[in-house]
Design brief:
heterodimer, B: about 475 residues, 2 domains, 5-stranded mixed sheet, two-stranded antiparallel ribbon, 7 strands
Chain lengths: ~130, ~475
């Protein structure tokens, strides 16, 4: 069964690019336009991904960060990476958060880099996660 | 139907003495503790003075007789014992007893004021309540109470002072029965009784009135100063908030400018990665050029945000840390090696580690920008040398970055750290130069107290020397 990856980004070109790269490398991708869509989808256990790729500035300045906090609380073991145009410039907004848990990929999407990071993160978390809620 | 009331009144930011009085702004415990310690030290000097006076009384009986001062006086010793004992008690309460409602800095200060006023009253009684300036020392306590307490509390201190001074006067006058003008000074002239009563009354009324006036003036001044202090504190908070809002705005603008470029470059990467089928070498070449220009623009956009953040950090200093210079160099090389490899430039490095105190991210900015510049303005297949060394003679540490690139002309050298400066020669060599990199270095160097020396010969190369003062021994921890 392919591993499931959720991707949240308001830019359709970025969504399309990530979907193409990941599906062609054997992953199942659920793309979401907004963080709210993704959080709502998590109510369905079938939609819970193995890894989430979050954008920071979707809907609002820090919607991605809020999603990250919510995700971390609800699914503490779920891997998540940020993919943002701002790269490590958003780090000052990560107050008191584990640097180990936070992984930031700077756009543009580089297929080899993206795949390498996702494989590395999924290797840390091989089994499907259960909600702690 | 939605309805919102908008208001842009500046009322909240206006200076309001009445409000300050109502709030009765008190000083923070930190300030009180700091001053309590100062008072304790000051009191030890008073104790020393009193002991010296006691020694004088014991050893200079002839001089005392000549001055008309009575012998066998022991009050300086008694007062110095009281002051020393209570001083130890204040220190014990401050440093060795858990803070509580009854052991707060404010309570400590109250105890000090009351004990000091009792001791001062004893001194005034013995030295002379109407014949010497001793009673004027009450004013010092009133002024201090106005500074450290609220207006109401300082009024209570005033009342205590008035009561104590009045008791001293009344007790000395024996309910207006004749006493000497000073118990310490011997009676050489017996004054007229009614004249003495008049003088006691005159001192009582005039000095107590003076105490009241001093209390009024100083307490009002204190309220004004505290209100201004509060106003300043609020203004600082507003500046901080404005800085935060400005940074968020900068991030938003940066994001909006860079996001379309990222989408374009992501699609280029998709094609280059073979996800859209085979493409001709001509198309690949065109895509590479588009990507290169896009990358330059992305760098410029991020550098502008970095520049704004660094400028802001001058006003809000970040926490300094102990940093290993070798680690910073290793990170910079790790990051820039792919850039060097792409142009077949060799990155040679020999590092002698030393530790410095600085802002880690800003040291990285300095080194990355200087090495990145060296790579940018080097010719292909050249080499860039990075060395770090400690100069034990003057306790400085240096990082030297040397390239064999296009160099900098003498007339351009003084301007290279200016914002958006780039020389025509530099633009010919690197069309995507933003002119921001070295201004980032300048601000970061200023924030970290670092000097930078630049020497260059056109067409032969440039050497940047980053000079760190006050370096730490290996492993950090200067102490």
């Amino acid at each position: 069964m392919p591993q499931k990856i959720a991707h949240i980004d308001d830019d359709p070109d970025i969504r399309d690019t990530v979907r193409r790269i990941l599906t062609m490398n054997g992953y199942e991708v659920d793309s979401y336009h907004t963080s709210a869509d993704f959080i709502n989808a998590l109510n369905n256990p079938e939609s819970i991904p193995d890894l989430a790729i979050l954008d920071v500035m979707v809907e609002s300045m820090d919607a991605g960060l809020k999603t990250y906090v919510e995700l971390h609380e609800q699914f503490p073991g779920m891997q998540a990476v940020f993919m943002t145009s701002l790269g490590d410039m958003i780090l000052p907004y990560f107050v008191d958060k584990s640097q180990e848990w936070v992984c930031i990929i700077e756009k543009p999407v580089e297929p080899a880099v993206l795949l390498s990071i996702i494989r590395d993160r999924l290797d840390r978390n091989p089994s499907k996660l259960n909600s702690s809620a | 139907m939605a309805e919102i009331d908008f208001s842009w009144s500046d009322r909240n930011h206006q200076f309001d003495i009445a409000a300050a009085r109502e709030k009765g702004h008190k000083l923070s415990n930190e300030i009180l503790v700091e001053n309590i310690r100062w008072f304790i030290i000051f009191r030890w000097t008073v104790v020393a003075g009193l002991i010296l006076l006691q020694v004088f009384f014991l050893t200079a009986s002839e001089t005392l007789a000549w001055l008309g001062v009575k012998e066998n006086q022991t009050w300086p010793l008694a007062v110095s014992i009281i002051l020393s004992g209570t001083n130890f008690a204040y220190i014990y309460a401050l440093d060795f007893v858990k803070p509580s409602r009854y052991n707060s800095p404010s309570a400590n200060l109250w105890a000090q004021i009351i004990v000091d006023l009792i001791c001062l009253s004893i001194v005034v009684h013995y030295v002379g309540s109407t014949a010497t300036p001793a009673p004027f020392f009450y004013i010092l306590h009133i002024a201090l109470a106005c500074i450290f307490f609220s207006a109401i509390e300082s009024l209570i201190v005033l009342i205590i002072v008035v009561v104590m001074y009045t008791i001293v006067l009344v007790s000395e006058s024996g309910m207006f029965i004749y006493v000497y003008q000073s118990i310490m000074v011997g009676a050489q002239v017996v004054p007229d009784e009614s004249l003495n009563k008049g003088r006691v009354l005159l001192w009582m009324v005039s000095l107590n009135s003076l105490f009241l006036i001093v209390w009024y003036v100083v307490s009002r001044l204190s309220i004004v100063v505290r209100a201004h202090e509060q106003h300043l504190k609020e203004a600082m908070e507003q500046v901080k908030q404005a800085q935060y809002n400005k940074d968020q705005y900068g991030m938003l603008v940066t994001h909006q400018l860079k996001a379309p470029l990222d989408a374009i470059r992501s699609k280029i990467n998709l094609i280059n990665g073979g996800y859209c089928g085979e493409v001709s070498s001509d198309i690949r070449e065109v895509l590479a050029r588009i990507d290169k220009r896009g990358a330059g623009m992305s760098r410029l956009i991020l550098d502008m945000l970095r520049l704004e953040r660094l400028k802001a950090s001058v006003h809000t200093p970040e926490t300094m840390e102990q940093i290993s210079v070798a680690a910073v160099i290793a990170r910079a090389i790790d990051k820039l090696e792919p850039v060097a490899n792409a142009r077949n430039i060799k990155l040679d490095h020999a590092t002698q580690d030393f530790w410095v105190v600085g802002i880690p991210e800003q040291l990285e900015i300095i080194l990355e920008n200087i090495i990145s510049n060296a790579l940018t303005y080097s010719y292909d297949n050249a080499s860039v040398e990075i060395l770090s060394a400690v100069n034990f003679q003057d306790a400085t540490g240096n990082i030297t970055v040397t390239d064999q690139g296009i160099g900098i002309e003498e007339k351009d050298l003084p301007n290279i750290f200016n914002e958006y400066f780039y020389s025509p020669r530099a633009v010919v060599h690197n069309k995507s130069s933003s002119g921001i990199g070295l201004s980032l270095v300048k601000i970061a160097a200023r924030n970290n107290n670092i000097k930078i020396r630049v020497s260059s010969t056109p067409n032969l190369g440039t050497t940047f020397t980053i000079v760190f003062h006050n370096i730490l021994p290996p492993g950090g921890n200067a102490d």
